């Protein structure tokens, strides 16, 4: 590890920041809280700032020592951390200010989805959240942010109205939807392609009244779940497709998973189909019940309807929040899936689990659909907040298929990468036949990702121009410029 000058302890003694100087004996998970071990080793230095002055000092120190400054919030981004990294841990930036008069919330750069959910819930309001409470709100937004509430309010990035933070040059700035010139260009690109542009100290988003969802009196939403054996994949796929086009309040999800150790047949492939409805339960039942055929009833291993407290919406995904292990998410956003492609994707997932034992228990594939009407409307050139200038390709695509891979052995990596590539290609077949270009979710970019799958050519020109302007000298890690082939 290279020598840092001046010594970090002396340099940061004049600040409020805490520092961690890793040694050869340091255990990485004692230093950095990160969701995945992919591309993870000890950084040169960890800085935990308490204020924006500390952030400016960290940026200056990184530049003087030719280190790449990488900002960590929720820790879910799969980007390289190594001996050339100054890791800026934002977990002290936890302020949350709820303004119900103007229906806005301002929160710190280290706030997670769970923390924001709980704070807003106590005021009877909500915003667009990720599908995991452990994900950072800032990171969600910088990559676009598809959420379970996107049918109602669009992408997370569509709901941002302001950022405050520190630039690569050390300047503290506030930018919002009223900004002009290059500051407005920066604001727009931050919403969707923003990683590596600004250390975000706080951001402001729209909020919405929980009462507008017309949930049960105790603020619970409706969820119907079916569990099918793997052999029923064709029936499950047809049932899933029958739920579309989806109503704005509805989120259908089909999951390929393994039965838990406590089940009568542990480790067997199963299909979990859930329909979540953020609205009156009577509406949900009126939509779903007529679609249930005798064959569905016969083949389902289990069926149940539950009412989930809104504040506990992340309970079902907590098992995937565990830190450590090699994990990644990879997404194909599509105009549609054929039954054949869903069946083929299931068979490829099953084959992968049979062949790669350490990836078998927790690797899942998800088939998700929603109503894109609001996402499309937000991207209109006539939108009053100018959201049409925010980079995000394929707003009209109502479906995505996603692999969530989780394995323990480094030597499994080539098999994992092959599985990911095969699955995304399978799920894109119906789109390929109709001439649609491949598309993905920028939130899931890794180094070496095909960036052009997340943005249009015109958007990429502007994104790169803005990144060159605001990240002069390459102080911040910029995944858009990291085209290296991927390896652990």
UniProtKB/TrEMBL annotation:
<dbReference type="GO" id="GO:0071949">
    <property type="term" value="F:FAD binding"/>
</dbReference>
<dbReference type="InterPro" id="IPR050416">
    <property type="entry name" value="FAD-linked_Oxidoreductase"/>
</dbReference>
<dbReference type="InterPro" id="IPR016166">
    <property type="entry name" value="FAD-bd_PCMH"/>
</dbReference>
<keyword id="KW-0274">FAD</keyword>
<keyword id="KW-0560">Oxidoreductase</keyword>
<comment type="similarity">
    <text>Belongs to the oxygen-dependent FAD-linked oxidoreductase family.</text>
</comment>
<feature type="domain" description="FAD-binding PCMH-type">
    <location>
        <begin position="39"/>
        <end position="210"/>
    </location>
</feature>
<dbReference type="Pfam" id="PF01565">
    <property type="entry name" value="FAD_binding_4"/>
</dbReference>
<keyword id="KW-0285">Flavoprotein</keyword>
<dbReference type="GO" id="GO:0016491">
    <property type="term" value="F:oxidoreductase activity"/>
</dbReference>
<dbReference type="InterPro" id="IPR016169">
    <property type="entry name" value="FAD-bd_PCMH_sub2"/>
</dbReference>
<dbReference type="InterPro" id="IPR036318">
    <property type="entry name" value="FAD-bd_PCMH-like_sf"/>
</dbReference>
<protein>
    <recommendedName>
        <fullName>FAD-binding PCMH-type domain-containing protein</fullName>
    </recommendedName>
</protein>
<dbReference type="InterPro" id="IPR006094">
    <property type="entry name" value="Oxid_FAD_bind_N"/>
</dbReference>
């Amino acid at each position: 590890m290279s020598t840092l000058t001046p010594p970090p302890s002396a340099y940061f003694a004049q600040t409020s920041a805490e520092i961690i100087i890793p040694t050869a004996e340091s255990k990485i998970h004692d230093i950095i809280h990160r969701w995945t071990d992919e591309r993870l080793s000890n950084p040169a230095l960890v800085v935990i700032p308490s204020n924006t002055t500390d952030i400016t000092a960290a940026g200056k120190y990184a530049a003087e020592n030719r280190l790449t400054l990488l900002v960590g919030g929720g820790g879910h981004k799969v980007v390289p951390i190594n001996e050339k990294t100054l890791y800026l841990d934002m977990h002290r930036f936890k302020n949350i200010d709820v303004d119900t008069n103007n229906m806005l919330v301002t929160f710190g750069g280290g706030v997670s989805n769970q923390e924001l959910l709980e704070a807003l819930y106590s005021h009877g309001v909500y915003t667009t959240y990720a599908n995991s409470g452990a994900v950072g709100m800032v990171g969600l937004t910088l990559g676009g942010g598809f959420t379970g509430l996107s049918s109602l309010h669009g992408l997370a990035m569509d709901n941002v109205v302001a950022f405050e933070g520190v630039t690569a040059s050390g300047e503290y700035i506030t930018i919002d939807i009223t900004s002009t010139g290059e500051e407005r260009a920066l604001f727009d690109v931050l919403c969707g392609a923003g990683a590596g542009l600004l250390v975000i100290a706080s951001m402001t988003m729209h909020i919405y009244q929980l009462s507008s969802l017309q949930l049960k009196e105790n603020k619970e939403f409706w969820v119907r779940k079916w569990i099918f054996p793997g052999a029923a994949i064709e029936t499950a796929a047809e049932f899933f497709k029958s739920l579309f086009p989806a109503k704005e309040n509805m989120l259908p999800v089909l999951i390929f998973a393994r039965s838990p150790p406590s089940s009568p047949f542990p480790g067997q492939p199963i299909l979990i189909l859930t329909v979540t409805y953020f609205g009156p339960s009577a509406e949900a039942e009126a939509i779903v019940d007529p679609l249930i055929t005798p064959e569905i009833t016969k083949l389902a291993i289990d069926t149940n309807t539950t009412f989930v407290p809104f504040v506990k919406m992340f309970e079902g995904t907590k098992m995937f929040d565990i830190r450590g292990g090699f994990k990644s998410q990879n997404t194909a956003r599509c105009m549609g899936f054929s039954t054949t492609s869903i069946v083929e994707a299931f068979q490829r997932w099953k084959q992968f689990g049979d062949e790669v034992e350490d990836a078998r228990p927790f690797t899942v594939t998800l088939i998700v659909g929603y109503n894109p009407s609001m996402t499309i409307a937000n991207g209109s050139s006539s939108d009053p907040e100018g959201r049409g200038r925010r980079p995000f390709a394929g707003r009209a695509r109502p479906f995505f298929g996603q692999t969530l891979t989780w394995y323990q052995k480094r030597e499994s990596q080539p098999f994992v990468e092959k599985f990911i590539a095969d699955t995304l290609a399978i799920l894109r077949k119906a789109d390929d036949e109709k001439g649609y270009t491949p598309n993905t979710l920028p939130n899931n970019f890794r180094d070496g990702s095909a960036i052009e799958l997340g943005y249009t050519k015109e958007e990429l020109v502007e994104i790169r121009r803005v990144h060159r302007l605001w990240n002069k000298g390459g102080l911040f890690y910029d995944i858009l410029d990291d085209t290296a082939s991927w390896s652990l």
